[in-house]
Input
Amino acid sequence: MKYARIILPLLALALFASCDAINRILNTDLAEEDYTVGELYVDEYVKEVPYVPTPSDEAKEAGRVNALGIERSAGDNEELYDAIQSWIGTPYLYGGETKNGVDCSGFVGQIYQQVYHKRLHRVANDMQIDCTLISRSELREGDLVFFTNSKGRVSHVGIFLKDDIFAHSSTSRGVIISRLGDTYWSQHFYKGGRVK
Output
């Protein structure tokens, strides 16, 4: 009994102190986790000029221009081009998945669900799991294109079309068409991904 008067207050003090310490540790871990997820999930801000297609007069006259204004080729997936066209100009919104605002992985996920009836992981980095990684020279229509940020982490994804162009949700312009050969995209290109 004599020791209980001393031990019980000490146990209570230790319990409250440890709860506070645990709470601080948890909050620190969550903050670090949020930062890490953000680094993988959020694209870097890239100010760019969107690619503007210039089909030949012959293609225009023959009606061989698709919904995006790109010259048609035999075998083009018109459903893919039409779906992308319906998103062109949608503003960028971190975490967005609608035509009110969409981020890069949200855009890719929506297109893949609509055109290919496939559900992909939600985060750009995780979408690699859904793919067989391929080189830039192996890219074909509908493949994913992954890009790294300045820290070397995969943080951006788009959909390859053809002729070195891809569709994506740009942080500065929203959903647009860009060229893989543009300086930023060429420097940060990581891998292509063919969805399994």
Notes: Residues 132 and 189 are 16 Å apart (CA to CA). The helical segments are 4-41, 57-61, 78-85, 104-116, 183-188.
